[in-house]
Amino acid sequence: MSHISPGDTSFVLICAALVAIMTPGLAFFYGGLVRNKNVITIMMQSFVSLGVVTLIWIICGFSLAFGPDVHGVIGNLHYFFLNNVGQAPNPQYAPTVPFLAFFVFQLTVAALTPALITGAFADRVPFKSYLVFLTAWSLLVYVPLAHWIWGGGFLQQWGVLDFGGGMVVHASAGFAALASVYVIKKRVFAPGEDERPSNIPLIAIGLGLLWFGWLGDNPANVMHANGMAAQAFVNTFIAGGLAMLVWMFTDWVRVGKASMVGALTGVLAGLVAVTPAAGYVPTWAAAFIALAAGWVCYGATHLRAARGWDDSLDVWGVHGVGGLLGSVLVGWFAY
């Protein structure tokens, strides 16, 4: 207990609270994008992730992701039902904060990730089926991937860098979304039914909460209130703003006007792309990543439309492609 830093502990707990608000933010963001009749359903899909993933994380998810490594593939059950997870620091993951603080921060990230995927099959998956998917995907995809990259698994042993979740969170969710396009039938629209977003102010509120939460999500991965955390904070903020401008400018050139939904989508693309690099790159590199994300993700969303993939809310184009792009560029620009 003598090694606990009050400053670091306060910092991590505040950041965990910021990340926790991202899941409700996602609910608002997606709720505004879908048709009126589906608003409550998709918002519930986001909120219920906070409950289901919490249960999984307590029982075995956290242990399998961050427990002592087993052959580079998965963690063991050393932290089963939070056994050995207490107020004392953990030298491997959180040397100056209570291990419980690290646990709850990782829980908020784990709860957000599967909720991202729901934007791909909005309007089409019954709630009971979604609960099965949420549980299975969290255990079979997210948990092993988190261990491989963050928990001492084989990818981390090979030197793979993923500061805040470009691969663990965004690329995994984005490409899961693309896979769902080939499994779930397309949406059906009634003749003359309006396909436009139902509530743009709700989208803006949701994006605002996501951006706000992201300013805790990336810096907290340092687990210290220090210069790297400040670098991650700055890189995260500027990436959202610059990618928004790129998306708006591209819309102006292509269609003669900018749209609110497009501008907000641009912010999201920049935040996603800078996430794997946030604390590893200088500010100028984060700016480059943001500019690249604005153009590349914009192109990916239009490619998706041209191919007829019914990824309802462009999860693949923004999270999948943005996460992959940032994960590649961190190798170019990391200190």
Sum this structure up briefly.
This protein has helices at residues 6-20, 22-33, 39-66, 99-117, 127-150, 154-157, 166-181, 200-220, 227-255, 260-274, 283-307, 315-333; strands spanning 69-70, 74-75. With 335 residues, the protein is mainly α.
Polypeptide structure, described:
There is one protein chain. The protein has 335 residues and is mainly α. Helices cover 68% and strands 1% of the residues. It has a two-stranded antiparallel sheet. The longest helix is centred in the last third of the chain and has 29 residues.
- Give the strand order of the largest sheet, numbering strands 1, 2, ... along the chain: 1-2
Unreliable segments of 5+ consecutive residues: none
Q: SSE order in H/E notation?
A: HHHEEHHHHHHHHH
According to DSSP, the number of beta strands is 2
SSE-based structural type: mainly alpha
Largest sheet properties: 2 strands, antiparallel
